[in-house]
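Milestone M4 deliverable, item 7.
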Amino acid sequence: MEKVRMGIIGIGNMGSAHCKSVMDLDNCTLAAVCDTDPAAFARLPAECRDSVKKYTDPDEFFRDGNVDAVIVAVPHYDHAPLGIKALQAGKHILVEKPLSPSVGIARTLLDEGKKHPELVQSAMLQLRTMAAFRTIKHLLDQQELGTLTRINWIVTTWFRTQYYYDSGDWRASWRGEGGGVLLNQCPHQLDLLQWLFGMPSRVHAFATIGKFHDIEVEDEVNAYLEYPNGATGIFVTTTGEAPGTNRLEIAGSRGRLVYENGELKFRRNEVDAAKYIRESNSAFGVPAYWDVTVPFTETVTGARHHLIIRNFANAIRQGEKLIAPLPDALNELEIGNAMLYSGLNHELVTLPLDEKKYDRMLSGLIAKSRYVKKVASGGSVDMNASLS
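Output delivered:
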């Protein structure tokens, strides 16, 4: 295959940006776009606005034989059903985050994916391409930090105004979006948590609904995580704090690694702390350490979605290993669902998450939602039915 013929469904902010990415890449070409609202096509890049094939009916779009692969960039509840339709039509898929508002719905997409092993299936988790996080993963994989003991991630740089939330009736509603900061802003950090450190075994969170905004979903979360090896973690996020902080601190028996403000600093113990605790003859001594700034070369600035799209296309063309396989996106969603369930029900949650309990909770929230969700097929949908 010379170039992958790419189709994009959902021409909103992200879908229109993905059109530009596809047009800039040399391993794929923009074959068709789809949106139920014809006015959305005005967002297309000027270079293709008149020439690209346009659909307002998803079923017709999926039947287009000149489309090899589909990027799904529609509102959250439509990710799984439209991803399933694409697979059933024989299309490779790249799905925007999150896979769905709930693990239970997302699993229907992954189950369909298992029936089509010949099709490449990826997720838009582009922060994995950042040199800093790839360097952190290398250090962890090489056991440079020793035994992991503590993780602290404060990510409060997601500041949003009321104007932002009022810009679309699907935003910040249970029926339209399915959640708040955990589902819309933080999937990338939640993905990096599980990509770098693995899945926690227990989660206890505090989530606040509409603390800073007139919205019906969470805009502040403080979560405590426990890991199988005894390590603990703290995750703090909000869309209501300015100036915000983005600081990842990782403590291990061999030292402490901090990523903040574009720098990666490692305070490395000369002697493993666990060994020092057992063998030191000093009551108040601490291991000597070196302060090291870990170098990494960032070769990309700005949005990184095109790196995921390029990798997706190369996986189709020549079997390149995926940066973000679709099943990986289920893990970040499970952590987010666990945090939200814990925060709203004031419970300690043990993972794996009880998906049916979560879906019952979400159904109840949807029933009280102030907003009516419109789906990509153009009609309304009973989300309670989709969760049953």
